[in-house]
Specification:
The structure is a homodimer. By secondary structure, chain A is mostly helical. Chain A has helices at about 1-15, 20-30, 35-40, 45-55, 55-65, 70-80, 80-90, 95-100, 105-115, 115-130, 135, 150-160, 185-190, 200, 215-225, 245-265, 280-305, 310-315, 315-320, 320-345, 355-385, 395-425, 435-455; strands at about 145, 170-175, 180-185, 210, 230-235, 240-245. In chain A, the strands form 2 sheets. Chain A has a 3-stranded mixed β-sheet with strand order 1-2-3. In chain A, strands 4-5-6 form a 3-stranded mixed β-sheet. Chains A and B meet through α12, α13, α15, α16 and α17 of A and α12, α13, α15, α16 and α17 of B.
Chain lengths: ~450, ~450
């Protein structure tokens, strides 16, 4: 499917080159706006307005929403006042607010000047809410009904108002003072047996809603839990101010997963897609963590320095340091990653800490035991017998394998507790993933290693 | 919101204890099925059927779908034939197919025996499709229209058929031989100006669809790209066989992100939520990777062993091994995690390899340079002047800092190339994340370290 699509894209771009505009336009109108927007990625700057002007009004606006912000800015700068107004009139309010957020100040000024007054005030309202809140991702356009309307009147109202609402399928029933009291779906209305029944008789009263301040991550989780098409957003006085639709929730889910993954990989989260990020962008997101982790890794160095004599006496011990560090790091990151994801999906709460620790401890005893046994076998079979390493003694292998076992247990305990602790102090648990855990576990495992070496090898 | 909800849960469970069944029932009917299902998590086994039997028929079925499979199995085993039939009759086909997939054989037999013949054949059809294909997550219940119907007839048909369809908002237009030719939304129908217009005049003809064999990850990506409520699924002959709805796509998105994260953390993906996994489950998912990585980490040990003499001559070198390994590992995992996520979101393709490598190289030169400079400063200020470590020489610090720089460059190149290579050979790129990259980078960084030590320190 994807490859077939690339062939179509190439053919369309060729038509643009060859100025076959009317054929091109005939094909464009049959395409999905997302796909049309994709075409613009392959264009040179001066071709962008050319292709855009081929699109009929409605498709143009829908395509505009799906384009990346660089192309949007380029287009707006080239638009006549009239063209700008035409595109703005077709936008949904939440898309317009997104646009305003991403454009530089002088472009924003032009946009607000040409938006109609109602949209301008809605944009301003949405932009006042904190980033990542329900208020900032909602749209103020929805179908509202009144409790005393009949089913027939409600359907008539939807027919009259629906044309420029993002969804008509869930309608909200509000009182005169805009208090939210119920909802009906178009399915309820269409399947209602009595056209004359008042809405208040068929509406769902026990509503699930969010407030303008609810975190967008929480909003996305409610969508995936309840499978709603839209979720109403109310203010502090339970007055309806907007709705969040499922497609925005999907975007949030994707964004939040990406953010978690970036944090887990030891980077500052970025909203730019990879191919649009410059090396400087990437550098800025990555260097703070690398520096911090490098500095903390020097503690491990200090531990080694303070045991230099022990290492000099038993050179074989040095060779096992990387294996112990890596296995500890991997064991710890397994636990931290699992716990972070479970916290993100709301499967875990801080009060489960005891349960989690107990589960991880038992898992660690199992994993550590098997690893230690495998390691013991490997040391004797490979290092001793196959490679004939004379410095391997029973004592050395016992120190290595015992350390391995204890390291895995320590690593998994640290790995599961750090994200839970982060959650408790309202930090993002994803920060406590492999890079961070590895650094701590490295130091701990070396301490255990040298402790065992001192005791068992009398160094 | 979440905490308030826990208080409600406790109050409801107390009512159950105190046998206030009719009050309890009155409250339950106002609740969302997902929340009712959540109540069952807090119950003892013998209370589960008790609470379930309080629910009215439709809510019972909706709640049943949201419960975890252990509770479902318990209920089915306790159901009379009649109760089982009642629940099954209310289920959507895709939920019934999910149920059948998760139950043990004898329960499945009972389910299939009591499902009506039409549902039985639909379940069997869905179960025939490969795991993770569009066919396996679709439902066969959707509203189908014919091209010659009028808008009015179409609305009538929806009113007649809609009651047990998962979505009525997107209707599919099919020919006599079930070939898919178009779609209309309820919005189109409600906003149509002429009730007598034939469907073929208002339907969208250029459809985006998937086949029964399309991978579910691809399906989820199409939802997040196009913002559809539902996506039609056709067979090899373009005959309509079912639809995938947005809520299933959301579940897939969440599942796939979890799977990626688990793989990145060096674990086999698991479908069980964390709190339901036993330590044995966790052990089984984690030990293969740990063993494999432990064994490959021994190569690093071999490298150290073969440079034992160099280390004995310059003991200060050993202390920097953990820092070099960790920084290399972190740099590499930053790149691999970024590339893996971009591949998952379809932002990158294999043909972008050159571009990615060039971007990562420049980023690595920047990151490595800053790290090396910081490291040089730290060695002289802290190790030499503050701690008075006499074994630090200009030569040693030059070896460490040069190695650091090269390691970061090597780590980022390896980190970005491995996932791309995995993609090219149709492996899951997420396998090539931190644990794997770290192991490779460790070995490479030690080789670089000892090479510089040999050259610059003449060891």
């Amino acid at each position: 499917m994807a490859e077939r699509f690339e062939i179509v894209e190439k053919a369309l771009l060729a038509m643009l080159e060859e100025k076959k505009y009317s054929t091109l336009r005939d094909i464009l109108v049959t395409m999905n706006p997302s796909d049309v927007a994709g075409l613009f990625d392959g264009l040179e700057e001066k071709q962008i307005p050319l292709l855009f002007r081929l699109l009929p009004k409605e498709l143009a606006a829908e395509t505009f929403v799906e384009m990346d912000s660089a192309a949007q800015e380029l287009l707006i700068r080239g638009f006549s006042d009239n063209e700008l107004k035409e595109v703005l009139d077709e936008l949904y309010v939440d898309d317009a607010a997104d646009l305003v957020e991403e454009m530089p100040a002088n472009v924003v000024k032009r946009i607000l000047k040409h938006a109609d007054p109602e949209m301008r005030s809605s944009i301003n309202q949405i932009l006042r809410y904190p980033d990542n809140s329900a208020g900032s991702i909602m749209t103020t356009e929805y179908v509202s009904l009144r409790p005393h309307m009949t089913v027939e009147e409600a359907i008539l109202r939807i027919r009259r108002q629906g044309i420029d609402k993002e969804t008509i399928y869930t309608c909200y029933v509000i009182e005169k003072d805009r208090t939210l009291t119920g909802l009906v779906t178009v399915k309820d209305l269409l399947l209602a047996e009595d056209d004359e029944a008042p809405i208040e008789d068929i509406m769902l009263r026990n509503l699930i809603y969010v407030t303008t301040q609810t975190d967008q991550e929480e909003v996305a989780r409610m969508f995936s839990k309840y499978n709603f098409l839209a979720l109403p957003v109310v203010d502090g006085e339970n007055r309806m101010v907007g709705i969040v639709t499922f497609d925005d929730a999907m975007d949030v889910m994707e964004e939040e997963a990406t953010e978690d993954i970036e944090l887990m990989g030891g980077m500052m989260p970025s909203e730019k897609p990879y191919l649009k990020s410059t090396p400087i962008d990437l550098f800025k997101n990555r260097i703070p963590w690398l520096l911090m982790l490098m500095v903390s890794a020097t503690f491990t160095g200090l531990i080694i320095t303070s045991f230099e004599d022990a290492l000099a006496a038993q050179v074989a011990l040095t060779a096992f340091i990387p294996m112990l560090m890596d296995t500890g790091g991997n064991s710890g990151s397994q636990s931290s990653v699992t716990v972070i994801r479970a916290l993100s999906l709301d499967e875990l709460k801080f009060r489960d800490l005891g349960l989690v620790l107990w589960k991880e401890l038992r898992t660690a005893v199992l994993c550590g035991g098997v690893l230690a046994a495998a390691c013991f076998g490997k040391i004797w079979l490979v290092d001793k017998m196959l490679l004939g390493n004379a410095s391997i003694t029973l004592g050395v292998s016992a120190v290595v394998c015992l350390t391995l076992w204890i390291t895995v247990i320590v690593a998994k305990s640290v790995g599961c507790m750090l994200p839970m602790a982060a959650k408790a102090v309202k930090l993002d648990p994803a920060v406590m993933a492999s890079p961070f855990v590895t650094t701590i576990v490295d130091a701990l495992s070396l301490l255990v290693y040298f402790m065992f070496a001192k005791i068992l090898l009398h160094l």
